[in-house]
Design brief:
single chain; alpha+beta; 2 strands; 11% strand
Length: 75
């Protein structure tokens, strides 16, 4: 999917969505993180671990999540 701003950079799209959610009154209080393929492996593992433990309410990600996710109940 191409970013509506004309950039096809996945990390920028994920960060933009996270920013919108942070500012929206109905989603501002949610515990959230971002995940994309340009992140270092250890950082991706840390974020996925937090999500799998239930430490996050929402995970904003690119299709990188489709590969290797063992989370039984993603939301």
């Amino acid at each position: 999917m191409q970013d509506t701003e004309g950039s096809d950079e996945p990390a920028a799209s994920v960060q933009r969505i996270a920013s919108v959610l942070a500012e929206h009154p109905e989603t501002a209080a949610l515990r959230r993180a971002t995940l994309h393929g340009q992140m270092p492996t250890d950082q991706k593992e840390e974020v996925m671990g937090a999500f799998e433990r239930g430490d996050l309410d929402i995970l904003i990600t690119t299709t990188v999540i489709e590969v290797g996710s063992t989370c039984p109940t993603p939301r």
